[in-house]
Write a sequence for this structure.
């Protein structure tokens, strides 16, 4: 079995009820965001407490619905602004592990010599 390899990873800003299923999340992508859930991208939703996420991914034969829950802490989500926010694959890996993915883009400070 092969896992889906999304072309893009989109974080949806608005929190959703984690009881929401594939059809309702797909409808939200289409109607609220103006995108098609079958475009090869992954759409990632969060709950209000940011300790659970759901990802909806289309892989040409069907739709995957994946869920992840952190037992401690929460997922780092972008600041309020746009409805959608895109991540690079390495940022996605960090997000799934509960690590602050924004640190990847921080500039490295050179060592100071005193």
């Amino acid at each position: 079995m092969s896992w889906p390899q999304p072309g893009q990873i989109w974080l949806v800003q608005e929190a959703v009820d984690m009881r929401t299923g594939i059809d309702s999340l797909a409808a939200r992508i289409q109607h609220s965001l103006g995108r098609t859930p079958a475009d090869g991208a992954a759409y990632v939703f969060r709950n209000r407490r940011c300790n659970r996420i759901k990802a909806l991914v289309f892989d040409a034969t069907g739709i995957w619905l994946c869920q992840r829950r952190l037992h401690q802490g929460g997922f780092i989500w972008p600041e309020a602004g746009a409805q959608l926010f895109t991540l690079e694959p390495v940022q996605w890996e960090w997000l799934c592990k509960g690590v602050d993915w924004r640190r990847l883009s921080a500039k490295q400070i050179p060592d100071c010599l005193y």
Notes: The beta strands are 9-12, 42-46, 52-58, 63-69, 84-87. The helical segments are 22-31, 89-96.
